[in-house]
Amino acid sequence: MLDFMTIFGQFRLTRITYAVLLLLMFCFDIAKDPIERLIMAEHDQASRELMAPRSTGGTGTAVGGEVSGKNMPLMFKGQEELVKQIAASGRKPTAEDMQNLRAMAAKGATQMTLRVGASDAETAKLVSRRSFFETLYMVAGIAMTAITIVGLLYMVSSRLRDIGWPQYLLWLLLAPVFLPRFFAIPLPTLAIQGITFFFYGALLVLAFIPGEDASPPARYKLAQPTPVKRRPGQFGRLGTQ
After folding, report:
1. Closest CA to 78 of 111, 47, 42
2. Taking 70 as the threshold, does the pLDDT of residue 35 lie above it?
3. 35: exposed, middle or buried (C-beta count within 10 Å: 0-12, 13-18, 19+)?
4. What is the pLDDT of residue 38?
5. What angle do CA 31, 37, 38 make, to 5 degrees?
6. CA 94, CA 100: separation in Å to the nearest integer?
7. Higher model confidence: residue 95 or residue 202?
8. Residue 27: its pLDDT value, please?
9. How many of the other CB atoms lie within 10 Å of CB of 33?
10. What does the CA dihedral 58, 59, 62, 66 come to, rounded to 10 degrees?
């Protein structure tokens, strides 16, 4: 029978080694969800900090400015400077001043929403942090899926080789699990549960099947030379004829 898994050479896994690797694979599979949730928690925390009200004047605090001894609400940097100029001049804000204030507010809100044009180091740091965890989430998902697939292929293939079973059984075990996921085949919940139980059950069964004995069977014993008594006056090989 043709060996489909030649990429793993002729590796064999004994029952003990296979059981240890299978336990590690189960633990890794359980740990994937907490790892993804941890990454997304950091991503969401950076998003909340980015959307939280704070001063854009470089202080990094959420305290409003103070103009002419009066506390002012949170403002973008351009708005704060314009309000201070109007207060210092002692005049009332004109229609043009109000239009400039609204334009600066719209510009600042757009920059904060689109995460572009960050005007201070804190905002740039939060944007970079959020993008990092967003990318890390996608990379981690792909990496953990690849590790699971390659690990299962290696374990099952090596265990089948140690038992002495044909390698095509590998595809009979893995195809029902991975084909519906790869091709997005809709299955009822009962069918998905049945496939899952069959898959894990088959993996466990492989851990209890004894492997094929690699040493040749000692069915025949080598013939031993028959000792021969030497006749008086005989020379040559001692004890053999």
Report:
1. 111
2. yes
3. middle
4. 94
5. 90
6. 10
7. 202
8. 93
9. 9
10. -100
pLDDT in tens, 158-196: 999 899 888 888 888 888 888 887 777 888 888 888 888
What does the alpha-carbon distance between residue 115 and residue 190 come to, in Å, rounded to a whole number? 45
Amino acid residing at 141? G
Q: To which residue do tokens 């094929």 refer?
A: 212
pLDDT digits (tens, 9 = 90+) for 91-141: 777 777 777 767 766 666 666 555 554 456 777 888 888 899 999 999 999
Residue with tokens 């001043």: 97
DSSP assignment letter at 233: T
DSSP 172-210: HHHHHHHHHHHTT----HHHHHHHHHHHHHHHHHHTTSP
Place of tokens 């390659």: 150
Query: Do 18 and 152 touch, CB atoms closer than 8 A?
Result: no
C-alpha angle 83-84-90 in degrees, rounded to nearest 5: 95
